[in-house]
Amino acid sequence: MEQVTSSSLESENDILPVPPEYKINIEKGILIATFIGGPIAGAILIAENFNRFGKETSARNTWVFTILGIVLFTITLFYTRILEILSPITLPFLYTGVISLCYYNFQDKLVKTHLTNDGPIYTIDRSLLAALIGLIIMAPIYFFAYRGIENIGSL
Q1: pTM higher than 0.85 for the full model?
Q2: Do residues 53 and 154 make contact, with C-beta atoms less than 8 angstroms apart?
Q3: β-strand partners of 24
Q4: Which of 47, 52, 66, 88 has a Cα-to-Cα distance from 77 of 20 to 30 A?
Q5: Which neighbouring-strand residues pair with 121?
Q6: Which residues have a Cβ under 8 Å from the Cβ of 43 and sit 6 or more positions away?
Q7: DSSP alpha helix (H) spans, the chain
Q8: Which residue has the higher pLDDT, 60 or 72?
């Protein structure tokens, strides 16, 4: 039978978990990117986090639901004339709120675990790049949604 000494117990307790090597996007960056660049920017960062966490199916679902959401959102803007009732500035708050709910429901615990294990995070620069990409993609959609289908020919 092996004799257990206090020094052998101390060495076993001194072993710390290895911090993850992959970087992730945190809530602040995701929400800033979403507000500036639209739901595409939020989807870029959330899907990237899912891929980092090894949840490829969730990353794919993020894209499917984002594209469906944008299509339904755009159709709603075109046909309900909701922008005549609401100020256009309310739209970024609306889709940032939706992305925030998705983040809290699907990634908050994973991100907190990553940060607890001293995992690295991306800087805000990466979020701003995603915002720029999202803005380039979403700007024409917003433009035409705001102008209306009947005004497209009079550009």
Answers
A1: no
A2: no
A3: 121
A4: 47
A5: 24
A6: 62, 63, 66, 99
A7: 6-13, 27-37, 39-52, 56-80, 90-106, 108-116, 124-147
A8: 60
d(CA 119, CA 116): 7
Dihedral of CA 59/121/123/91: which sign?
Answer: positive
Q: By C-alpha distance, which of 24, 21, 26 is closest to 104?
A: 26
Query: What are the tokens at 73?
Result: 């959102």
What is the token pair recorded at 101? 């709910």
DSSP-assigned letter for residue 26: -
End-to-end Cα distance, the chain? 87
pLDDT at residue 89 in the model: 84
- pLDDT score of 52 more than 70: yes
> What pLDDT sits at residue 149?
54
